Structure to design on (454 residues):
């Protein structure tokens, strides 16, 4: 073993140690929240650590190999090759999850890419396993140690194809990124490719793992650390939002008016009064449960809460309040007390401000890229420009908008015309609020939803 082999071993060893430390740090940071970005970053780091440890066996022990050394080099070579594809697949997941916070990706990225990439991973893994017997990608013999197989180019072609796919996604959304993010992603696109080209041309130089580690370190410093600070700020904002909504939901006038209505109903219709008590109890119970929720809840649960609230208000206002539901989609999630808050706003500031009352209509629908919830009323309406200056009256709407953006990456748009009514429209992107994919991360839409094209 010469000094150059020792240098390669040291380079791979330090790369594995540094990647393992960054990977564990990312996993700890993602603990307790649905943070796919940090988990994918951890996957890249840990896969590269495995790859670097496997690469060490290419330099030590030196041939000829005894039986134990032969098994060690064979295991290390297999680990090296089998870890290559997960590195780039995790990076694909990293950039897709990261960019989804900023803009709407093309539907094909979510619909077509996963099965194709999955098929590529399975095929490549089969080649790695087959190489243990036929040596198609790599060969290990007691006499010569590790050598590249006749079909070594397959491993390189697979990696290059996946790397180019990642490059296309990043370049198509390059304008959505900050300078620090561009540096991090560019380093991961360029450094491994340059190192891999040198390593293919000059066997004996262990540059690939070191280049990936350097790129990951740049991403860790320029993106992950800044993102962790952003998450902390978002957590603080969400905590403040939960405090605001708790205060906004404890409304004495609503409690007093409802209890007064129940008291009067006890004299005229005891059975109906009993039903109102049941509805009021359910309303309060759901309010308290929702205030402690840190993640989106199923739409059906929030819809049930809104129905309970509107039923109580109908008991109070009678024919002055008419309610309609047109629910055509339910398989998604949204922040707690969002639909109920919009319904309450329609009743308090819309319909009941008119002497003759009016109608509140709640609807949900599914679009190709999002779920849409609307709450419309034909009440008094308001002047949008003037509403921006009214911090107290519309604090509930601002609260809902902030939580929908932070928890679901969605938007809330309120349109109103004085004398004609108000329409509030919630849009929940399918990658965020659909069942099985609701995001509880506090990162939300940092970057403001720049709407960059695919």
């Amino acid at each position: 073993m010469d000094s150059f082999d020792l240098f390669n071993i040291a380079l791979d060893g330090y790369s594995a140690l540094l990647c393992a430390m960054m990977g564990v740090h990312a996993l700890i940071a993602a603990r307790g929240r649905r943070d796919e970005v940090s988990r994918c970053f951890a996957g890249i780091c840990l896969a590269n650590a495995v790859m670097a440890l496997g690469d060490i066996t290419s330099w030590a022990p030196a041939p000829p190999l005894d039986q134990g050394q032969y098994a060690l080099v064979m295991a290390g070579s297999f680990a090296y090759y089998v870890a290559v594809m997960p590195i780039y697949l995790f990076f694909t997941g990293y950039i897709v999850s990261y960019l989804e916070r900023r803009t709407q990706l093309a539907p094909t990225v979510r619909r077509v890419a996963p099965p194709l990439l999955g098929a590529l991973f399975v095929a490549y893994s089969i080649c790695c396993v087959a190489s243990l017997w036929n040596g198609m990608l790599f060969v290990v013999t007691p006499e010569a140690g590790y050598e590249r197989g006749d079909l070594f180019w397959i491993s390189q072609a697979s990696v290059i194809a996946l790397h180019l796919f990642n490059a296309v996604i990043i370049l198509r959304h390059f304008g959505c990124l900050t300078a620090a993010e561009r540096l991090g992603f560019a380093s991961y696109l360029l450094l491994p490719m340059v190192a891999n080209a040198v390593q293919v041309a000059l066997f004996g130089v262990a540059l690939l793992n070191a280049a990936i580690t350097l790129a990951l370190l740049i991403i860790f410093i320029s993106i992950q650390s800044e993102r962790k600070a952003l998450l902390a700020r978002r957590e603080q904002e969400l905590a403040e939002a939960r405090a605001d909504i708790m205060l906004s939901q404890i409304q004495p006038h609503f409690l007093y008016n409802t209890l007064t209505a129940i008291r009067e109903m006890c004299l005229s219709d005891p059975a109906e009064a009993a039903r109102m008590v049941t509805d009021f109890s359910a309303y309060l119970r759901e309010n308290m449960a929702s205030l402690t929720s840190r993640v989106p809840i199923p739409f059906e649960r929030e819809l049930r809460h809104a129905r309970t609230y509107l039923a109580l208000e109908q008991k109070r206002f009678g024919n002055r309040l008419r309610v309609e539901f047109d629910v055509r989609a339910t398989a998604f999630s949204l922040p707690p007390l969002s639909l109920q808050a919009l319904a309450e706003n329609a009743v308090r500031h819309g319909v009941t401000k008119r002497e003759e009352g009016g109608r509140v209509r709640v609807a949900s629908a599914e679009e190709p890229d999002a779920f849409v919830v609307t709450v419309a009323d034909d009440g008094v309406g308001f002047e949008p420009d003037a509403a921006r200056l009214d911090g107290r009256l519309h604090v509930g709407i601002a609260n809902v908008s902030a939580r929908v953006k932070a928890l679901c990456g969605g938007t809330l748009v309120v349109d109103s015309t004085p004398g004609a009514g108000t329409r509030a429209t919630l849009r929940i992107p399918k990658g965020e609020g659909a069942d099985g994919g609701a995001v509880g991360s506090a990162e939300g839409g940092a970057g403001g939803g720049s709407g960059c094209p695919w």
About this structure: The radius of gyration is 29 Å. Residues 208-249 form the longest helix (42 residues). DSSP finds 15 helices and nine strands in the chain.
